[in-house]
From TrEMBL:
<dbReference type="Pfam" id="PF03480">
    <property type="entry name" value="DctP"/>
</dbReference>
<feature type="signal peptide">
    <location>
        <begin position="1"/>
        <end position="22"/>
    </location>
</feature>
<keyword id="KW-0675">Receptor</keyword>
<dbReference type="InterPro" id="IPR018389">
    <property type="entry name" value="DctP_fam"/>
</dbReference>
<dbReference type="GO" id="GO:0055085">
    <property type="term" value="P:transmembrane transport"/>
</dbReference>
<dbReference type="InterPro" id="IPR038404">
    <property type="entry name" value="TRAP_DctP_sf"/>
</dbReference>
<dbReference type="InterPro" id="IPR004682">
    <property type="entry name" value="TRAP_DctP"/>
</dbReference>
<keyword id="KW-0732">Signal</keyword>
<dbReference type="GO" id="GO:0030288">
    <property type="term" value="C:outer membrane-bounded periplasmic space"/>
</dbReference>
<protein>
    <submittedName>
        <fullName>Tripartite ATP-independent transporter DctP family solute receptor</fullName>
    </submittedName>
</protein>
<dbReference type="GO" id="GO:0030246">
    <property type="term" value="F:carbohydrate binding"/>
</dbReference>
Length: 326
């Protein structure tokens, strides 16, 4: 016993002699709706890692994934009044706080993925990131989210007519409600986390999303008809609370901005890989994947034209600028 106590005493002295690990001066919180191994969450974690490394451990960003801080819209509100420091969200719900963002997510707006990245990484994207300050946010970076497609539990969608009357969940976004109505379906706005059980119980018959979200939420288990109509590309955005940013020195603000941008290639690479994995997994699990004919795509595009003419003139001008990016 004596010997044991002696060992303990020696250990205690040894431990107290070790240099204490520097405690962070500031711990900040980031809200994320997706699970831990989803590409956007891993992008958030890379952002946090870079900030910690570049501030020598002074600033630590804790990533609360799996909507631990709440559903997307509620977290955006908390970021707006500074209760949460950062969040990564889809620009669809963000547009309720900054309506100009609708111009960036119009249906069939981008010719392809390359076009979208040219816009986001160019002056238009930069202007959008900087436009959020009046709403009390600071736009930091864009993440990939692929293209969104319809899926449902009832039938294969091969044409616009097949969507008629289907109850389709949409994000909490006016534009997305209009989009689904324009196709003759019935839009039902609902938080992301409620979609699985709503599909299962038949409250809704379908939803729309990219391959990774369709797979990672297990929606494919309860809605097996997936149509590759690619109606929108809705970028993901990393935002900070302006209240948090204003508390930081100019140097730390710069580290945060740069770390967010530097985490983009990492997220985009993981996204590409996970898109493929998701497609393979849902196909193997028995999802029925429908490819649209060029005529059917043209029909989808035609049905959505009114959304363009209903857009405010100043947003129509932004849309034209986006279309002109070559
Ligand atoms: C996913 C986005 C997520 C959205 C979700 C949704 O990554 O941020 O909230 O769609 O449909 O693709 O609500």
């Amino acid at each position: 016993m004596k010997r044991f106590l002696l060992v303990l005493a020696v250990l205690a002295v040894a431990v107290s002699a070790l240099p204490a690990a520097a405690a962070p001066e500031m711990v900040l919180r980031l809200g994320e709706t997706h699970v831990a191994d989803y590409p956007t969450t891993k992008g958030d974690m890379e952002f946090a890692r870079l900030v910690e490394e570049r501030t020598g451990g002074r600033i630590k960003i804790e990533v609360y994934h799996s909507k631990q801080l709440g559903e997307e819209k509620a977290v955006i509100e908390q970021v707006q009044f500074g209760a949460v420091d950062f969040t990564r969200v889809s620009i669809s719900p963000l547009a309720a706080f900054a309506p100009a963002f609708d111009a960036l997510q119009m249906p069939y707006l981008y010719r392809d993925e390359e076009h979208m990245w040219k816009v986001l990484n160019g002056p238009i994207g930069e202007e959008f990131l900087n436009s959020l300050e009046p709403a009390n946010f600071v736009g930091l970076a864009w993440y990939d989210s692929g293209a969104r497609n319809f899926y449902n539990s009832k039938r294969e969608i091969k044409s616009v007519a097949d969507l008629k009357g289907l109850k389709i969940r949409v994000q909490e976004s006016k534009l997305m409600m209009g989009l689904v109505s324009a196709l003759g379906a019935v839009p039902t706005p609902m938080p992301f986390g409620e979609v699985y059980s709503a599909l299962q119980t038949g409250v809704i018959e379908g939803a729309e999303n990219n391959w990774p979200s369709y797979f990672s939420t297990s929606h494919y288990e309860v809605a097996k008809y997936f149509t590759l109509d690619g109606h929108t590309r809705v970028p993901e955005i990393l935002i900070a609370s302006k209240i948090t940013m204003d508390r930081l020195s100019k140097e730390d603000q710069e580290i945060i901005r740069k770390s967010a941008k530097d985490s983009m290639p990492f997220q985009i690479k993981l996204w590409k890989e996970f898109e493929k994995v998701s497609e393979e997994k849902v196909t193997a699990a028995g999802s029925i994947i429908t490819h649209l004919t060029p005529e059917a795509v043209a029909e989808f595009q035609k049905a959505m034209e009114p959304l363009y003419s209903e857009l405010k003139p100043e947003l129509q001008a932004v849309v034209r600028k986006i279309q002109e990016v070559k």
